[in-house]
Amino acid sequence: MSEVIVRLNIEGEEDTERLMTALDSFALWCENRSVTHPDDVPAEFMMTTEHNGRGLRRKLIFADQEHASQFLRLWETKAFEEAIAS
Q: pLDDT for 37-51, tens place per residue?
């Protein structure tokens, strides 16, 4: 299986907080999924920091497409919730 790479530009404290919230939500989703789907592959990912020419960004490397998609849904939901709140 090939890796799925997600790159996120993190530009300040608000983006960092949103990333941490999305990661917490993803961890909770994984925990709940392991209870309801015990035979599924556990979520595996690695996060690194890379330079994009203008600044730093986060690179998340997932072992499974479904897990990467779920994380992105959570990331986008947090961005939408913040946009509505402001």
A: 777 778 889 999 998
Look at domain 4-85 and name its CATH class. Answer: alpha beta
Q: What is the CA radius of gyration of the chain?
A: 14
Mean pLDDT of 51-64: 90
Name the β-bridge partners of 60: 6, 47
DSSP string, 34-79: HHH-TTSPPP-EEEEEEE-SSSEEEEEEES-HHHHHHHHHHHHHHH
Domain ranges of the chain: 4-85
